Amino acid sequence: MILTVLHSATKKPVLWIFAFLGFFIFSMIAEVWAGSPMGHGRRHNSRAFQGHHGQGFLGEGICPQIRKTVQAPDNILTQSNPLEKNRENIYAGESLFQIEVQPTACKICHGVTGNGLGIMAQGLNPPPRNFTCRSTMESISDGQLFWVIRNGSPGTGMPAFKSLKDREIWKIVHYIRKLSTKKR
Ligand code: HEC
After folding, report:
1. Rounded distance, CA 2 to CA 140, Å?
2. What is the DSSP letter of 49?
3. 50 Cβ below 6 A of ligand 1
């Protein structure tokens, strides 16, 4: 049957249009039945999937955040980011944050969107910093961010990342800063 259709389709181009329409309608029915495909910014197509595959939770997170993190030594606290804030550096920071950093990518705790609601955030007290919260982030200097990434925050879930190179940390700092430019 399909072969006959295909056979005559080569002769009658109009049949291709019907075949295409058929597939189009089928895909619409499939989408209604199975849910829409996940595209950019739509990592969860239903609330039941929140927390699936280490993506963490969506939402805005806690803002402003109570912050008791130890302060970096003065000379580091006042240091500004030596790297240019260009696309390459921000993108490199993003890759490190989301995927590359060992042993645990930052997103696992800080969330894919930086909202502090990563898959491992549950049960952490104090909770991971919400990088999308502008009012809290404005009170933290670049040097402070650098220092905590390198040394961790003792007594909290924030580990030290000793194996990261200085340049890698500064790239991450550029990326983290970008997360609070859009929202609150
Ligand atoms: C295992 C969970 C976990 C991972 C992985 C993690 N963090 Fe954190 N992070 C935390 C927690 C918890 C805090 C809150 C610490 C505090 O309140 O002192 C925090 C706080 C921070 C802060 C705030 C510092 C400040 O002075 O307020 C920065 C910056 C930070 N993390 C960056 C990173 C980066 C970059 C990575 C990846 C390289 C990362 N974190 C990976 C849990 C994590």
Report:
1. 66
2. G
3. no
Alpha-carbon distance of 131 to 7, in angstroms, equals: 59
**For 122-162, what is each residue's pLDDT tens digit?**
989 999 999 999 999 999 999 999 999 999 999 999 999 99
Judged on CB neighbours under 10 Å (0-12, 13-18, 19+), 135 is: exposed
Superfamily for domain range 47-179: Cytochrome c-like domain (1.10.760.10)
What pTM does this model have?
Answer: 0.77
153 C-beta neighbours (distance < 10 Å), count: 18
Residue type, 92: A
Between the CA of 127 and the centroid of ligand 1 the distance, in Å, is: 9
Task: Return the DSSP state at 78.
Answer: T
Pocket of ligand 1, candidates 70, 109, 138: which has the most ligand atoms within 8 Å of its Cβ, to mutate? 109
CA-nearest of 33, 10, 180, 42 to 110 is 180
Give the closest residue (by CA) to ligand 1 atom 39: 106
Rounded distance between C-alpha atoms, residue 56 and residue 50, angstroms: 7
What are the b/e assignments for 39-55, b being 16+ CB within 10 Å? eeeebbeeeeeebeeeb
